Each structure stands twice: as C-alpha cells, then as structure tokens.
Amino acid sequence: MKSIQKYFLAIVPPTEILERAESIKVEIREKFGVKYALKSPAHITLKMPFNYNEAKEEILIGKIGELLKQQAPFSVRILGVGTFGNRVIFMDIDKSKELETIQNALKAFCKKELNLVDELSDRNYHPHMTLAFKDLKPNSFPDVLELVRKRSFKTEFSAAELVLLKRIEGRWVLFRSIPFGEIFSGKN
C-alpha cells in the first residue's frame, strides 16, 4: 500500500568525490562514534525533506523533469571545510550563481506544486556537504574538526542531474536521478 513518504532534492557528487566524502564520514564514526551523517550519501541539499504521496512519485519526477528541461550542467566547487557553530562540520560549497538559481527555482516549484512553505534553510541557503552533525557532541567537536581538516579536499565537478532521495527504513537512498535539460544532454 502506498503512503506518505519523506523525500528531498539534492546534487550528488560523482562517485570518486562521493567515496572520498563517505570515507571521511566512516573514519569519523570509527574514531569518535559520530555516525548520523552516514544515514544519507554525501550530497548538496537543494530542498530540505518534505512529505509526499508515494503513489504520485512519477508525477513529481515528471514535473521536476519539466522544470529542469532548460537547465544546463554547471560546475560545482568544493572549497574545503566549514562549520555551523560547534554542532555541524561540512565540506563548504561555492554558492555560485548557477547553484543559487537552481535552488531558487526549486524553492518556487515546491511552493507552487507541493504547497510547501519557505523554510529558514530556503531563505538562508548555504550549500554544503555535511560530514558530521546531530550526534556530534561539543566536547569531541575540536578533534573531529581536526580530522576533517586533515582529510578534506578542494575540487570541482560538473553537476548534470538532480537526485530525488527517499527515506527508506531510516536511511536516505538515491531514489531517482533527474537529468538536466535534454537540450543539453544530446537526447531528443
């Protein structure tokens, strides 16, 4: 039976970068017991989790595909390490014009098509890939941050698709990739 499920929209880096970020998260878990960030693959959130009717997933995917029809692939730059206070450690992402434009388009889409209200994260968008949060305690924060700084990297990749992630059995899974515009991918 289909039901209301949780989803979110993100850019997921290519395999090589994804694996590097995941290996940092695994090392954080092994050395400090901080594991909550492992409940989702490394990603750059564009729309925070929302509830949606599972029976209408294909309709949602189709509408997002229409929105992305004229979206050209764009470059995403990882700048190094950042933090939100002493509770979140992440790989900082350059807030490029392209990233801001797609995030704003998705925010407007979700408001119109899904009746979602603007959240604080929609208005104060700071692109990043979380490596440790939620179960990261203030007393272990400096040591975890030191480890992340030693393992962090700067790089750039081309974003050519949006990923719809779905919460299944307590974990976020890569549910469906939605390519940016067919006019840019060579498809007719």
Automatic annotation (TrEMBL):
Record's keyword annotation contains Hydrolase: yes
Keyword Protein transport: no
InterPro entries for the chain: 2H_phosphoesterase_YjcG-like (IPR050580), Cyclic_Pdiesterase (IPR009097), RNA_CPDase (IPR004175)
GO molecular function: 2',3'-cyclic-nucleotide 3'-phosphodiesterase activity; RNA 2',3'-cyclic 3'-phosphodiesterase activity
Annotated TM spans: none
UniProt keyword terms in alphabetical order: Hydrolase
Pfam families: 2_5_RNA_ligase2
Protein name: RNA 2',3'-cyclic phosphodiesterase
